[in-house]
Amino acid sequence: MRIRPLLALVVLLLAGCRIDGTATPAPEGWAFVSEQPCAASTGAGDFSCVTLSVPVDHARPAGEHWDVVFGLLRAEGERRGVFVTATGGPGSSGLAAADAYSSSFPDEVRQGFDVVFFDQRGIGLSQEFRCDDAYDDYYVPIQASSSSADRDEFAAASTQFGQDCFAEAGVDPSTAPRYATAQAVEDLEDFREWLAAPQLTLYGESYGTQYVQTYAAAHPDRVAGLVLDGVVDLTTDQPGFAVQQAEAADGVLTATFARCDADPVCADAAPGGTAAGYDALLDRLAADPVTPPGGQPVDDLTLRAAAASSMSDPYSREVFTDALVDALLGDVAALDELGNGPYAPDPSFSDGLFYAVECQDYDVVPQDGDPRAELDAWLDVSAQRGIDQLRLGGSFYGDLDCLFWPGSTTTPDVERPAPVTDPPYPVMVLNADTDPNTPFVGAEDVFRDLTPGAGPADAAVIQLDGPHVVYGRGDPCVDDPVNTFVATGQVPDRRVTVCRW
Questions:
Q1: In this structure, are residues 402 and 371 in contact, taking their beta carbons and an 8 Å threshold?
Q2: Residue 122 and residue 19: Cα distance in Å, rounded?
Q3: Helix/strand/coil (H, E, C) string of 251-309?
Q4: What PANTHER family does this protein's entry cite (predicted)?
Q5: CA–CA dist 403, 379 (Å, integer)
Q6: Cis peptide before 90 (omega within 30 of 0)
């Protein structure tokens, strides 16, 4: 997902298995290495693991190579196409999701399509890049009101974090550009060539929408169809996306309060309104933390953490609402569990790779620019948009470390893509209107730019009150048109379908 954890509050997950991150010389272009059953421990036990040796820098195909691993589940009948899933993050292992995701694919897809998941370069079995210790040890708070000295401290600590991350991963910082999505999609193109597939049907979720759009821009003639679920608009820069994300998270929390107020039982706990009750509780806990029996102190940060970590799906929002109601009635045990509970990160997810990709894909600092000056500019945006006055604005600051990431000032600038208006392949755009991670506005913008009636058809599915990433959760209103699109290439007759969670 193009989602940075909400500072120390939230982590979005998924990635896998350690190697030294070095590359070795190999023949020009890609080379087949092996195909063997994937180990059950990878999460792709039903798949074959295909390893290719690919150029580290696809602009220099005769240079260094490294191994990238793709999971392949061949069509049970005659192959009519290839269905590729790009998972979220960046930092998630596609192989780790392969068995779970593919088990819900309909028979017509399993019968007629080769199904592909993969560990993107830098993840899991594909030259994994990890710096868990550096990530866990690093946290320096920053906000719009931070003093110049505090900003200097953040800049120094962030610079050190980037250096420590590459050192722990055992990777030369000068090679940072190798992790860009533009390089990673060429690995998929090499795999398509090996598979001898004329075209690919691509499904991307969250950050995966960034990946598949990048592939489609580079190889539009190789795309049979594109499904974007939890949409990243590639034409939006990082500060703009950060604003959208912070405002969306705050908006979802406000909507969560409104749903409680509309329910008589829930509303009884906060006669003045749930939002006012939350704000008053925040002030009380800041002044006087409460420790439940056998629990940890519950303060204002606990409440914020509980809220921020619960906004991505309706179930979690309901659990948070129940915990808030209990706390307003004097019982903070559930709030303690949500906000202070033991954090068990998915061992397959790489926070280091999150930065390694994110900080390459966007020009947060112009080449030869001044990261410290750019920090001031980002914080000025925060002040102008009132980010720190939002109940949940912390996600705005999640990508600030990219300002000081290795290569931020030396990597050549990347031209922002033009909006896609008339692609040669059909497109389906999916999003919930209550998605705090890839806000609904991104899907709106991407779909708005598609020209109706020009070229292959396109369609949108909007799920009201839904989660981040909507396909594959069992709602036929969402799943049926997507499954039909994958199997036949046909979009729904109605250009916009509205579903309700």
A1: no
A2: 10
A3: HHHHHHHHHHHCCHHHHCCCCCCHHHHHHHHHHHHHHCCECCCCCCCECHHHHHHHHHC
A4: 2-SUCCINYL-6-HYDROXY-2,4-CYCLOHEXADIENE-1-CARBOXYLATE SYNTHASE, TRIPEPTIDYL AMINOPEPTIDASE
A5: 12
A6: yes
Helix (H) or strand (E) holding 323: helix 314-328
Rounded CA-CA distance 44/56 in Å is: 25
| Threshold 0.85, pTM exceeds | yes
- Is there a contact between 120 and 211 (Cβ–Cβ < 8 Å)? yes
- Position 366, amino acid: P
Residues whose CB falls within 8 Å of the CB of residue 156, separated by 6 or more in sequence, listed in order: none
Q: Which of 411, 421, 404, 429 is nearest to 361 (CA)?
A: 411
Tell me the residue length of the chain: 501
Q: What is the mean pLDDT of each run of 10 residues along the chain (501 residues)?
A: 36 32 65 97 97 96 96 97 97 97 96 98 97 95 97 98 98 96 98 98 98 97 98 95 97 96 87 92 97 96 96 96 95 96 82 96 94 98 97 95 96 87 96 98 96 83 98 97 97 95 94
